[in-house]
Amino acid sequence: MSIELNGKLSDPLFIFANPPEKKPSRDDPHVLWFEAGKIHTPGIIVPESGQHIFIESGAWVVGAVSAREVEHVQISGYGVMDGSFNLRMTAEEMKQLFTVSNGYQAENDYQRFIEFYDSKNLTMDGLILHNSTTWQVVPINCEQVLIQNLKLIADNPSDDGIDIVRSRQVHVRDCFVRVKDDCVAVKAHLDYPDDCIVEDVLVENCVFWNAAWGNGIEIGFELHSSEVKNVTFRNIDLIHVESGAVFSIHNSDKAVVKDILYEDIRIEDAGHKLIDLAIFRSVYCTDGDMYPEDKNDNVSHTIWDNYLKVPAGKGKEHARYRGKIENIRFRNIFVLEGHFPYSLMIGYDDEHAVRNVEIENLQLYGRRLRNLQELKLHTEYAKEILLK
Fold first, then answer.
1. What whole-number distance in Å separates Cα of residue 128 and Cα of residue 84?
2. Concatenated DSSP letters for 47-100?
3. Cα 225 from Cα 203, distance rounded (Å)
4. 231: which strand partners?
5. H/E element, 266
6. Closest Cα to residue 162, out of 104, 105, 118, 219?
7. Average of per-residue pLDDT values in the chain
8. pLDDT digits (tens, 9 = 90+) for 199-251
9. On the CB side of 150, how many CA atoms lie within 13 Å of its CA?
10. pTM of the predicted model, to two decimals?
């Protein structure tokens, strides 16, 4: 439950109900147990293959989890991982807790709550992640990942909830996310080959609240792989999307984004954009840093954050870095109350376009929309758009 008194969104009360906590054996040598009733400061926990990190209900952990090239790792329990201590620590205190020798990459900084690189068969179940100062749950080039029953609550810049980066066979379910940035984001960047793609992602049975910036359900911005495909978002409630878009595909690089399904989704409050499918240049893309002489003069935050304008006469030069958006399906989308926002579908040019978008049974306050004019849709280089 999200309890908001007198319509005030800044100080909600969240109440979560869980099934009984499943506890592993204390005698299992593969279990790292953080017991209830204590504040634990482990720094960066670096699990090994086959290890189970258990944060018991009532335990408070000031730390993070980071691992590379591991298999069959489980993180569970109803305890709390907390990042707010980071905001109150001195530089010297931070150096003692988050050190290079303890697995962190840079002193005096705070890393993501839970991150895995190049790993497989991972499970994250039940935790409360509180007040992270950056991205929170981040599988990077991972396979066979289950993320379930997490509660992510933060109010800091760049505090994305779940970022799925170049990963495959990822299942996110039964999660609550209230963050200042993207609730869930699918990305394809970092130093990997083009054929390290995103594929077979399912996000379902979740409740999202996006606050000051970012988007509710995001694919982008960083899409450097050849493809992002077979991604489904199903049975989701977006109780607030205060800024940005409810549904966004921001393709600012070369990937072909295709075969995306949004199904059985309810929107209670969306203040800015409903659907935002766009192909453009941004500061995050391959050609974003290649021309430093025009970067400062061409950055804009009007339609999209960190949009980078293409200088006059250089459209074809930058077209080789652009991708496509195609075969997108929206099915059973319900705007229940609040403002009815506008939508955008904007390609880069005829070759790098948004195409084959089908919207079936989009309802506004209980009434089914019958044509694209009612959708308040603006299009450029967008083809084969069907509302039925």
1. 13
2. PPTT-EEEE-TT-EEEEEEEEES-EEEEEE-S-EEE-HHHHH--HHHHHHHS-G
3. 21
4. 201, 260
5. strand 256-267
6. 219
7. 91
8. 999 999 999 999 988 999 999 999 999 999 999 999 999 999 998 999 999 99
9. 30
10. 0.94
